[in-house]
Each structure stands twice: as structure tokens, then as C-alpha cells.
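request received
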Amino acid sequence: MTTAVATGMQELLEELVVAHRPRGPVGSVPASIPHLGRVEPTSFGIAVATVGGDVYAAGDSDVPFSIQSISKVFSLALALRQDSANTLWRRVLREPSGTAFNSLVQLEAESGIPRNPFINAGALVVTDVLQEQRGDARGQVLAFVQALSGSSEPAIDGAAAAGELERSSRNLALANFLADFGNLRCDVRQVVEHYVGHCSITMSCRDLARAGTFLADGGRVGPWAGEPWSALTAEQTRRINSIMLTCGLYDAAGEFAYRVGLPGKSGVGGGIMAVAPGRGTVCVWSPGLDAKGNSVAGAAALADLSSHLGWSVF
Amino acid sequence: MTTAVATGMQELLEELVVAHRPRGPVGSVPASIPHLGRVEPTSFGIAVATVGGDVYAAGDSDVPFSIQSISKVFSLALALRQDSANTLWRRVLREPSGTAFNSLVQLEAESGIPRNPFINAGALVVTDVLQEQRGDARGQVLAFVQALSGSSEPAIDGAAAAGELERSSRNLALANFLADFGNLRCDVRQVVEHYVGHCSITMSCRDLARAGTFLADGGRVGPWAGEPWSALTAEQTRRINSIMLTCGLYDAAGEFAYRVGLPGKSGVGGGIMAVAPGRGTVCVWSPGLDAKGNSVAGAAALADLSSHLGWSVF
Amino acid sequence: MTTAVATGMQELLEELVVAHRPRGPVGSVPASIPHLGRVEPTSFGIAVATVGGDVYAAGDSDVPFSIQSISKVFSLALALRQDSANTLWRRVLREPSGTAFNSLVQLEAESGIPRNPFINAGALVVTDVLQEQRGDARGQVLAFVQALSGSSEPAIDGAAAAGELERSSRNLALANFLADFGNLRCDVRQVVEHYVGHCSITMSCRDLARAGTFLADGGRVGPWAGEPWSALTAEQTRRINSIMLTCGLYDAAGEFAYRVGLPGKSGVGGGIMAVAPGRGTVCVWSPGLDAKGNSVAGAAALADLSSHLGWSVF
Amino acid sequence: MTTAVATGMQELLEELVVAHRPRGPVGSVPASIPHLGRVEPTSFGIAVATVGGDVYAAGDSDVPFSIQSISKVFSLALALRQDSANTLWRRVLREPSGTAFNSLVQLEAESGIPRNPFINAGALVVTDVLQEQRGDARGQVLAFVQALSGSSEPAIDGAAAAGELERSSRNLALANFLADFGNLRCDVRQVVEHYVGHCSITMSCRDLARAGTFLADGGRVGPWAGEPWSALTAEQTRRINSIMLTCGLYDAAGEFAYRVGLPGKSGVGGGIMAVAPGRGTVCVWSPGLDAKGNSVAGAAALADLSSHLGWSVF
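response:
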């Protein structure tokens, strides 16, 4: 990458911070997760990590935040990586859900097989798979994102996890329901605990962007992850990207596909990770959420970035 | 009651035993409750307790069996009796459910308010109310049926309850779901335990018929229950009877209303209790179930009895 | 019936008129059926026809009103009467629906077999059966209620029917959906026309009460219907009564069963017909509806009447 | 394009024909559309039209077939093109449906607003919009595909349309249901007729590929469409592509996104049109369908083609 381009990217990110950092509270923060309400509402960070190994960052890009559902991408990748018996896709489908992300109706209609790994039911099954594969699902996911980002900073926010666990009735309902259909095999309470645990991982935009570049590069990790290795095969990477594009933004997947045109995954912590295949991975963070649970400023900034760079796949 | 009538009733019950006792296994027993599978499949008992204080019984009428969902009638009656603040009907509706008895769909659509107290979700709420009112819901229901039947024989089958608790994923899902909507207030696991506990009460047909006569007599208990007292007001009794008639037989309430024409409540243990207002209460038991979860021989015998005596309310 | 009793009944009805006739508009009238909005809101009529052949009436008991869904009872009775091949119950179930009366969801889930003959889908199937049996379903139902009431006054309000037909998109949707499942066999549009037609029959409380006594008397019609004949067998009558009790009041069947304790059928024209088996049939009419679509004043008056006479079956 | 590349593409298509043309009947053909059953089961055609104006074709690429739901792409594009008041997106959403393509449940839950323009309900609304805009929706769509492909061969198969109309109960149900919610404004029967009409357009792979290149080229039509013009803006094109990717393959959108990695739209006539943004448009046709309603051989061939050319967007 020439200096000119590098400068261009850095300038673009700085401009996006100026354009999109909220001047005050926007949207809402989830009432059910108290610690998320304590974040400074004008926070805004953005980082791009390219497949060439460059990292650009601006705004609050080094502030750790709760990655929440973005952890579903990494837990899925890890479960696939370890799925030597190739059984994961028998326990969770890969189709858009078309309903609120935590609905039980679909699950009942389809005999306990979640529509995709990004709705809560699907992510609980993936966590159960990790727990079955090697135990300590939460710890596995943490070690994985640390390795992928070449950083020891990603950590589990224990107090946050404990607070969320107390408000996990819906997830406990889902998990028991899955167990009733035989699609949860480890201890139900433990699976929910580990699920909430890996959702409570805190990471900065910079580290998340670095951790996600394998999705933009056919499975190959970035230079920050040590000696070259592949987290997944190119085929597995395509699989995850296609699921992100069709199911990654809760009930706004279609809208995001249009506005941003990239596979993405959001979390109610205000983060969004987007993948530009062959180019790099972007992470943006700002805590105020829209009615569908996605970062207001984050989605707008990604749309701008994608438009400026011509990165939309459409 | 004249001797002639008494003889007539006794003879009728004997004839019903001859006509309806299965010659071998009929229907099915619930796979999810192992101890129910160990019951002798040709068991058949029947008892009638009149508002006049007479009791007639035939067949295996003194054999204790698992009353299962029939306990929902007694836990509801007890919760109403103790509902001085009159809040129960804000937490559970009184309308037919029109879906399988353990569906989560309706609950989601109606924000955690179960359609009636006889579907599992509703019975869990009732158990939660008892637990809130005086603690030890299971023990309260047991003491209540002992008092109503004037018998110390009703007991909780601890081993059966423990076995069912292990297979209670669906009920734990329901209970956590209710808790998520704020409609379960005590500890979720404890509520399910007490719910399974009072479903595991064992009683004979004779004791169940005696315990249920207050429903046929405007709330007044039978002479076997000691000094005259009223378990409920006449109005509360009518309320329970109307719910039994519209919702007491799972997804076969309409069919039972037609064939038997009496308020009734069945359990997957093979028991059915039916109430003939102003006349008396009938209990029949035979373990083989039809596809809807109701005793095959029991429902047939009740239809015969109702027809012979002209007891149908229609 | 002694004069004393007769006087008692007549006085009771007069008192009910005084107590329940609205002083002004109460509840609502259906926006989708314009002609119903033109009825005087303080209208209130009541009539009782006994199995002994006496008729008592008070208030606006001779004013014809639109019977709307009450016609479903008569079309069902007629279809059963003519169902020599005994195929009706293969095409419609007899269980409570537990959802709004015009929902398509249940129909889709259960492959086009309506839950009961009183939800719109079920009534369309019954109309199709009549149309198949002898053609001119609308005319058949009219002739039937004229014969049952011994009156030539029941008539089809053609202008009202035409107005309703124009707003029948939902019924056309239901009918086409049933046809798609093979459960509607005559011309779809014609079936809806005849359905709307028999719902647009106008009758007075007096005539409706007289027409309905066969349901209280094992199928036998009243003396006003000419030479003694039976509209249905006693068994068929019980069948209809049990369906009325579990499904006759839209989504308030449970509440009505408790408050009134009698099989009943309401219509959005403000009429309610209730059956006291062995005693007689009551018809009450007042146009203001509650949120569930049942006459506010009518339901209250029936509860009072049932309570005064001790007619509740519970 | 150099001759070498051209040769490469042509050879690839020839190889795909050899590899994927069925040797006999595979999958199924829709029972509800009789004329589709008369197509030769071993038919297989494929064509690619590039944004540079080249067209490659192999197999039965000049045989006209029933485009069925692929017409939904063109009717949507045309409605958008003419939507000067910008009201279309108030009447139909743009999110994946996650249920069978003709379900009524979602529609009821969301008050008559279809989830996206490619499920039948959504396509009926789009047809209604066309009918409102300029009348003769069917004729408009036909003229549009003729103009886009620069060919007069696309035609409406009147006999097929008439046959389908006779079996359109489900679509009539949907359309009446939409009308009931006020989301269908023209005559219901006429809308269904025009909808079935434009679904009955027959086109060859070659013409379809040519007609679809505007989607790969920011809205610009190919040279075969006469003087340069734009069918849509680049933004509108991206919108349609993102909807195709998330909703274009019925309930297999996720699977197709993974296997092929391109926006696509299938029809039960066995055709699939796929768009490679910036490159070109592919059309493949083979009549045997899988359980989700997509061409078995067609989807396999597209996966191969995408893989060989590296055209997946992921």
C-alpha cells in the first residue's frame, strides 16, 4: 500500500469520526444489561485492518467495549474449526430468521433446530458444541480472539457477565427448550453462563478489526497473529461471510446489506464488525442503538465508508 | 338417597368396570415420565362421591395413582381460596387455549400471560402464587387434598417427582420464559420443583372423588372432611367448573364436553375427575392414553355413566 | 307453567329491561359493517321461549335486528340435519380456537381444517356444505329459521348483505385459502355471498328465542313450528350445545361460561342466544359491543337472568 | 475482452452443460402448474451477458421457458423506476422472510405489510403498484423485458397463465388478505391475473441474461437495448441486488449465498438469474426442482461457474 492510500484511509477515518460521533445521547441502550448503560454516549471509535497487514484507527478506537453478539462470529468460527466430525450444521440451520432475534416460535415450529447461528438459540447451540468439544467455551473464545488479534487485552468483564446472567431468563428459557428437543447436551445453566461469558468479552475497535481480518482473507490471520496460520479454510470463511450478510444484523440484515453492502455482525454493546472480502475488516463502535438493536452512528459511518471506498459487494 | 338408588349406582359402576377395563395395553403411556410406564395396563377404577355424602366405588378404586394434571384443579382452588388481594386473574387468563397444552407460542404472543390455569404455563403461575402466599406450594396442595378427602393416604411420590424433574426441560423453559415477562416471582427452579411435586401426588379414585365434591356442591366439602366448611364460595366453584369444561381435557375439551357433558380434568397418569353440579363428583382411572393425553377407557366409561344417569349438562 | 311462574318470568324480563337498557351509546359497533351503525344505541330486547311452549318477551323484543353470527348455529344445525353421509366433521373440528375469530394462522397450521364451525373459516365450510347439499345455502337457512320460529318475518336484508359483501376481503381470503386446501368445493365467491347472506338475516328476539328451543329440548321444535317434528336428534343437539359453550362467544367463551353458565352464541349485530337445556332458550339484543365483539348489555342481562333463575349448568 | 477470455467463458459454459445437464428426470416439477410438467426434463441452458456487451451461451440457451418468479425482479425494477412519489417501500419491507414463500402468518403478524417484494404477497403488492401507476401491469412488464433484452421474443404464454389462474386460490387468498389491510388498491382478481400473467412470460436464457445486465452495471442497459439508457439508478440497482441476495431463493437464500455467492432469483419454471456486480449476469435453466423450489442442476451449475470464475462476493 502506498503512503498516499494510507494517508487517504487515515483521513477518511478521521473524517468519519467528525461526521458521526454523537453530540449527545442518541437511540437507546438495552435496559436488560445495566452495565451497558454506563458507557459514555458520545463514544465513537473506528478501525480498519487490511489483508495487507495495515491498521488504521481513529476516535475511541482503543477503548475496550462489550462485544456482545459479535462474539457469535468468533465462537462460530472456532466451533467450525474444531468440528472434525462435521456435525455442527446438523444442529443449526443457515437461513435468515425473519423474526425477532430471540423468538421461540420458530424453534418450536422447527423442532428445536435454530434458523442460524446468530440468533440467540443458534449461538447457544454453538456454545454447547464448544463446551462439548473442549470444555470452558468462554475461555476458548477468549483465547481465540486474543490469538487472532495478537493482543492480550481482550478480557471477560466478570462483573458485567454476572449482571447479565441474573437477567438471562429468556436465554435460560431458550436453552431449556433446546434441551427439551435434545439439541443442548451439556448442563443447561453452564451453557448459558459460558454464552453470557463470551458475550461479555471486551475489546477495542483496533483489536476487533485485527481479529476479524481472517474473514476478509480466506481464513488467513494477520501478521499481528504471529507466524502465518489459517483460522479457517477459504470455504468455511465464505460460509461465515454469507451468514453474516444474510443474518448478521438482527432484523435489519436486508437494510444493512443495501446501505453498507458488506457482511457484518452487530452487538448491543454498540459495536459492528464488517468484512470487505479481499480488502480488510472494519470495526466501528458507538453505544446508542436503533430500534432493531444496531448502533445508529456505527451503521451510518459504515455506510459512508463503504460508499467512499466503493467496497459494497453489490 | 334411597337404597334402591344406591344399589343402582353401585351396579352401574360394577358394569362400567366390566365393560371398560382394558384386556391388555391400550393407547400409550407418556415416554417422558418413566414411572408411569410401570403401571399395570389393565388397571381400571371408578368412584362416585355424591353431594349427599355417599361414596360408591368399583374396580381398582383404592389403588393410588399419580394424579398429574388433576392436581392443577386443587392448586387453583387453593390459590383462589387464599387470594385475598384478588390478583390471581391478572396473571392468568380463563380462556381455552386451542393449542397443545405446553406451547410457548401463545405465551410469547400474549406477553407471558397464560391462556388458562390448566395449561402448564398457567399451572406454573398458580404454583408460583401458592409459593408466594405461604411457601411450600407442594406441601400446601398435599395438605389440601388430604383435608378435602378426609384421608391421610394422599402422598407425594418422591422418587417419581425426582424422575420427572430430571425431564422437566420444557417446564423449565416455560418457567424461565414466564420469569422473563415478570410473571414468575419465586425462584424458577423451586417453582418447577413444587409444580412437579404436586403433580406427583398419588391418590385413589375413592379419595379423589371425595376430595372433589366441593366442586359439585357450591364449595361445601363432604362429611368425610370433618365439621362442615366451605373450600370456596359458590361463585369461585362455578368459575373453576367453567374452566374445567372449556379447558380441562387438553386439546379434547370440545369432544369431552360433547361425549360426557360435564366439567372434567384429566391427567397423563390416566385419571379423570368429572363434576356433576348438584349431584356429585366422579373419578375414573385407567393408564392407557389417547393421542391427546386422556385416558382411553376412562373417557369412554365417563361417557357411558353420564349417558346412563342423564348427567350431561347439555 | 302456573300463572305465578309465568308472572315471575315476565316480571323478571321487565326488570332486566329497566336494569340493562343503555341510557346512551355503550361499547362500539363494528366499523366494517356500516348498516349496523345505524341502529338506535339504546335498543334492548329480551325474550324467553320455554320447552313447554310459553314465550315471554320485554323491551324491543319485536324489533328485527341483524343476527349475524347467530346464523352459524342454524346453518350448522341444518347442515348436520342433511348430513346423511356423515362427512361434515371431517371438514371442520369441534375444539375451541383460542385466537381471534378470523385468524388465518390456525388454518395454515392445521392444513385448512377450521377449529370449529363458529369461527368464520368453519362457518364458510358449513355454508359450502349446505351449498353442496341442496344449493341456495342462504335461502335454505332462511327457510329453516322461518320454519323453526313459525314466523314469516325473518328476512334477508339485501342492502345490508350487499354492503357487507363489499367489505368481505377477509372472508374472501379465508374462503380462497380453504379452497387452496381443497376444503371449499363450490364457487368461492358464491360461498362468501351465501355466507354473508345468511348472516344478514334479520329476526326479532321473540322469533329467535322460538327458533332456538329445539336446542333446549333434545331437538324437538316448539308448538309454533306446526305439527311436532324434530330438527335434530338429541345427540346432535348436545353436540351443538357443547360447541356453543366452548366456542360460541368468540374469544370470551370462558368468561361467558362462568358468568352465564349456558351454551350461547353471539353476533356482532348485538344479539346473543343462550340455551338452558331442558328449560328454554333466551334471546337478548342490544347493539353496543365489548372489545371481544359481544353485546355489553346483552351479556350482563343474561348473567343476571341466569343467576336469578339458577339456570347456570355449573 | 480478449479472444482468449472469450474462448475461456464459452468453453466453461460448454463444460457446465456437459457436467450438469440431467440424464433423466431429477427433483420435481410443481404439481400446481400443469404446463410446467410438460417440459423435457433433461433441458439445460446457460447464458452469460457481460457488462462489456458480450454474450456467451450453451445448451438449450435459446429455448424459451416460463420465467415464473424471476419476473418479480423485473416488475420490482419497473415499479421502482416509475415510483416518483417514492411510496413503494411503505407498502413492502426489504427483509428476509424466514418462512415458506407463500405463508400468510407473517402477513397477519405484520398488518399486511409483506416482508419483501419476492414473496408472493410482496410481488402482488408490486403488481398492484404497477397497475396503479399505468394500468396493464402484465403488459408493462412484458414491454420492459423486451426493451431490456432488445428482443421481441419474450411473450406471455396465455394458455399457461389461464391454467395457473385456475389454481390461484392461494394467491387470491393473499390478495384478498392484503386488500383487507388496505394494501391492495386495484381490483383483487385483476391484480392476481396480471401477476400470474407476468409470471407466465417465457424467455430464453440468452434473453434473460441480456435483460438482467443492468443489475450488474449500475442500472445501465446493454448495447442490445438500443441507445444507452439507464433502467435504474446505481443506488436502486444495489437495493435490488441486496434483496436478491437475502431473499431471492425462497427458503434457501442462505445456502445459495454460500454456494454461489451472488445475488440471484429463481423461478419454479427452473430458471435462475444471478448477478455478478461489475461483471455480468448469468441465466441458467433446467426444470427439475429441489425441495425448496429451486432448479437442482441450475444451482449446481451456478456454484461451479462462480467457483471457476472467482465471482463470489464473499
